[in-house]
Specification:
Layout (H helix, E strand, L loop, with lengths): L2 E6 L5 H19 L3 E6 L3 H7 L5 H8 L3 E4 L6 H11 L4 E7 L11 E7 L9 E4 L2 E4 L5 H16 L4 E6 L7 H13 L5 E6 H10 L6 E4 L1 H15 L6 E5 L4 E5 L16 H18 L2 H19 L13 H14 L1
Parallel strand pairs: 1-2, 1-3, 3-12, 5-10, 8-9, 8-10
Antiparallel strand pairs: 4-5, 4-11, 6-7, 11-12
This protein binds adenosine-5'-triphosphate.
Adenosine-5'-triphosphate binds next to loops.
């Protein structure tokens, strides 16, 4: 029956960028004799207004029974869907590679992987109201820091071998203090050079000298913010893919949100979603020892590069192509590659 892929189209531009990606996948299936059993599940704002719940139990079950999952962005229900799925399946590593693609105007040339701790920090959602006070608890544990530091060490060892630990321990002495200490301890087991830098300085250096970074290891909220910044340095939020990885499950998604301002206009950039599927193929290939998936991933990226070089770009990256035109063109390219 092939690989079961759970798919959440999501809100805003989610359905459009999903449909473009699905069209590209059909071409990969034909070329590599692959069979993806794609099952669609509901989640997000639209789902909440239709079904009264943002993340139905069928969606959770569907994810549980899938080989891999991918989702488009959701709007205001992000905490109830994206963050909830990450927590339910302990998808503790958020991997966000950012690099330049051809023919896209960028701020600077950049090639970094942001490794963001994905299970705790302020995103645990422990918020309280006390009369005229609002309180949020920031959780940073040794266990979560060690395991995310290992992910950063492994990734950096296969790249330039530099990990920059980003935190704010001069102010958040206990939480960031623990993160910094434990991350450095754990990274000493890897053949990598370890730097550390405060998050405010990191955000400035990222714009001025992105080549000072190879792998950035950071906490949940800092990683969320820095990865949007990094994607914009590369040209657009619309080209940033990501992976949420746990011990046995993984969920892939573009880093951008539902972009309601451009929804329904067929102008959303589908490359972040398409490249998220490429990350899914790479992950599934390693998990299932299926080389066809790796080849399909590589063909998919080559097709993206070719399409960009030939001017297949949406308005956010300086083009005039429609979302679905890019899907159709990539489909054709892959068939003929
Ligand atoms: P979130 O908090 O869920 O990440 P957000 O409201 O911060 O969402 P996004 O929805 O990511 O922000 O988008 C910010 C703006 O960037 C959008 O309004 C849109 O104009 C642009 N944008 C985001 N994604 C895309 C895309 N795929 N294609 C084109 N433009 C995009």
């Amino acid at each position: 029956m092939g690989y079961k892929i759970a798919w959440i189209k999501g809100d805003g531009i989610g359905p459009e960028i999903s449909d473009a990606t699905l069209h590209v996948i059909e071409a990969l299936e034909l070329k590599y004799n692959l069979n993806f059993n794609i099952v669609f599940y509901e989640a997000g704002d639209t789902c909440l207004s239709k079904m009264g719940v943002a993340l139905p139990s069928e969606t959770i079950e569907g994810f549980k029974n899938s080989d891999a999952a991918i989702k488009g962005p959701v709007g205001e229900t992000s905490m109830d869907v994206t963050v909830k799925l990450r927590q339910l399946f302990d998808l503790y590593a958020n991997i966000r590679p950012v690099k330049n693609y051809p023919n896209i105007e960028c701020v600077k040339s950049i090639d970094v992987v942001i490794v963001r701790e994905n299970s705790e920090d302020l995103y645990k959602g422990l918020e309280f109201e006390l009369e005229n006070l609002a309180i949020a608890l920031r959780i940073i544990s040794e266990h979560a820091t060690r395991r995310i530091a290992r992910v950063a060490g492994e990734i950096a060892a296969k790249r330039k071998g530099i990990v920059t630990v980003v935190h704010k321990s001069n102010v958040l002495r206990k939480t960031c203090g623990l993160f910094s200490k434990v991350a450095k301890e754990e990274l000493s087991n890897y053949p990598v050079k370890v730097n550390e830098i405060y998050v405010d300085a990191a955000s400035a250096i990222l714009i001025k000298n992105p080549d000072r970074f190879d792998v950035i290891l950071t906490t949940n909220m800092f990683g969320d913010i820095l990865s949007d910044e990094a994607a914009q340095i590369a040209g657009s939020l619309g080209i940033g893919p990501s992976a949420n990885i746990g011990e046995s499950k993984a969920l892939f998604e573009p880093i951008h949100g539902a972009a309601p301002d451009i929804a329904g206009k067929n102008i959303a950039n589908p490359y972040a979603m398409i490249l998220s599927f490429k990350m899914l193929l790479d992950w599934l290939s390693d998990k299932k020892y299926d080389k066809r998936l790796k080849e399909a991933a590589s063909t998919l990226e080559s097709a993206v590069i070719k399409a960009l070089n030939m001017g297949y770009k949406t308005p956010d990256i300086g083009g005039d192509k429609k979302t679905n035109e890019i899907g159709h063109f990539l489909h054709k390219l892959i068939k003929n590659l």
